[in-house]
UniProtKB/TrEMBL annotation:
Protein name (record): Sel1 domain protein repeat-containing protein
Organism of origin: Thermobispora bispora (strain ATCC 19993 / DSM 43833 / CBS 139.67 / JCM 10125 / KCTC 9307 / NBRC 14880 / R51)
Domain of life (superkingdom): Bacteria
UniProt region (Disordered), positions on chain: 1-26
SMART domains attached to this UniProt entry: SEL1 (SM00671)
PANTHER family: ERAD-ASSOCIATED E3 UBIQUITIN-PROTEIN LIGASE COMPONENT HRD3, SEL-1-LIKE PROTEIN
InterPro entries per record: Sel1-like, Sel1_AlgK, TPR-like_helical_dom_sf
Length: 470
């Protein structure tokens, strides 16, 4: 029986001659040839393997075709692989279907992926994946879960991710952690992330570290960050570097920041530059500030400009980096740029970043538990394949709310009070508060969209401006 969407198994062409092969190397091989020619499928399969090991691909194909026609499933699978590499996808699909129809789960999985890639036949692919997954294939269960996600079947996705995770698939366990976190079930998230991290999944260890940090369990956070750092996870190295810096261990902070910086982690590059300045290593500081500045970090661009002036008296380059930082709202850089222009005889009125300054760059410190929540929210959205907001935007929202509500009377409604003192519409402030609440309390509402986050950031900046706060 042929499943819809798959091709019929490609029979061996009757006119294909037996390829020329060297004489049997020993009596055992001669006996295999005799047995295969007399109709022994196991002997023909073994001969195919011997030919493949010698690099005789056509000989391997000949004997595997003979074995497959006699019912050898492994030979049918090998022919699928052979044709996928040396022949056509259609022929490969035919042999995979023959093997899959006789219970080979890996053949069913490969057939399903070819059906998706070649013809987009989701129904047939799902049928084969379900057959393989129900037979206990971990890989098929994982791929079926992904297919369910793509088609909007989140109940099916959860079922098959769970089956794959229980069978030991760390990717599915990691995903299940996000399903639990998004639903507000942090115990479920912790269970799956811990399972995956103990198996060596660095991302799961990092996200579990973030979850502990969000709960203000710094010891638990450090345990899993260190587990992730064993795999040189840049985010975990950055978090541990910040902890080392907070306790005054500059040597460990530098080592960790530079580990993350070498992997391209931009905030770590900036922090590595700052620590190198403390060590008096201006050359290394310039390297890291330069890399972070080139990647668009305003604070690094500002620091790089200062270093260029102090160490090299390179005013032209410093002017460039002050301009880059000022154009991203860095207030200190704008002041330095104005001063430098004045000293070098240039008029600041020709600088758009000075005459029409952008929104201010958020540079206030934010509690680690809030930044952890922001990162988890972004990761949860991105894990579903949806467009995610920038973590820095969520951090600015969380930090702004803490800043602007410090003076709210204990018995007052924060939204009404802020609307009264700022003159901003209560609905806009309420939206800012709801985005904040969703990030801090996952499961209470759908994750905010990128547009909703950008709107909330605009409200946060307007509130700070009206309240005289940066």
């Amino acid at each position: 029986m042929t499943i819809v969407g798959a091709t019929k198994a490609a029979p061996a062409a009757p006119g294909i001659p037996v390829p020329r092969s060297p004489e049997p190397e020993n009596a055992a091989e001669a006996r295999l040839i005799t047995a295969a020619e007399e109709g022994d499928p196991a002997a023909a399969h073994r001969l195919g393997r011997l030919c493949a090991e010698r690099g005789d691909t056509w000989g391997a194909r000949h004997w595997w075709e003979r074995a497959a026609r006699l019912g050898n499933v492994d030979s049918a699978f090998n022919l699928g692989v052979w044709h996928q590499r040396h022949g056509t996808a259609e022929e490969a699909m035919g042999w995979y279907e023959l093997a899959a129809g006789n219970g080979d789960a890996e053949a069913a999985t490969r057939l399903a992926m070819l059906l998706l890639d070649r013809s987009g036949d989701v129904a047939a692919a799902r049928l084969w994946l379900e057959r393989a997954a129900e037979d206990g294939s971990r890989e098929a269960a994982h791929r079926l879960a992904l297919l369910c996600e793509d088609t909007g079947d989140y109940t099916g996705a959860r079922r098959w991710h769970r089956a794959a995770a229980i069978a030991g698939d760390l990717r599915s366990a990691h995903y299940l952690g996000f399903i639990g976190y998004t639903a507000g079930d942090e115990a479920e998230a912790q269970h799956w992330w811990e399972l995956a991290s103990r198996g060596g999944h660095a991302e799961a260890a990092y996200h579990l570290g973030l979850l502990h940090q969000a709960r203000r369990d710094e010891q638990g956070a450090e345990t899993f960050f260190r587990l992730a750092v064993r795999a040189e996870h840049p985010g975990a190295a950055f978090r541990l570097g910040a902890r080392a810096l907070a306790r005054g261990d500059l040597a460990e902070a530098r080592s960790l920041f530079e580990l993350a910086a070498r992997a391209g982690h931009v905030p770590a590059q900036r922090m590595a530059g700052l620590v190198c300045v403390e060590f008096g290593d201006r050359q290394a500081a310039g390297l890291w500030f330069g890399r972070a500045a080139t990647a668009g970090d305003p604070e690094a661009a500002y620091r790089f400009g200062l270093l260029l002036v102090a160490e090299h008296h390179d005013l032209a380059s410093a002017k460039h980096w002050f301009r880059e930082a000022a154009s991203r709202g860095h207030r200190g850089a704008a002041i330095e740029l104005r001063t430098l222009l004045s000293v070098t005889g240039y008029c600041p009125h020709g600088e758009p970043c000075l005459t029409d300054p952008p929104p201010p760059y958020w540079d206030r410190p934010v509690a680690p538990e809030l930044t952890a929540r922001a990162e988890l929210a972004v990761a949860a959205v991105a894990h579903r394949g949806d467009p995610a907001a920038d973590a820095d935007q969520l951090i600015e929202i969380l930090g702004t709310w803490d800043l602007i509500t410090r003076d709210v009377p204990a018995d007052a409604d924060p939204i009404g009070w802020l609307a009264g003192v700022s003159g901003l519409h209560a609905a806009a402030i309420g939206h800012l508060g709801s985005v904040r609440s969703t990030v801090l309390l996952p499961g209470t509402a759908p994750w905010p969209t990128r547009a909703e986050v950008e709107h909330a950031v605009g409200t946060a900046r307007e509130l700070r401006c009206r309240l005289g706060l940066r």
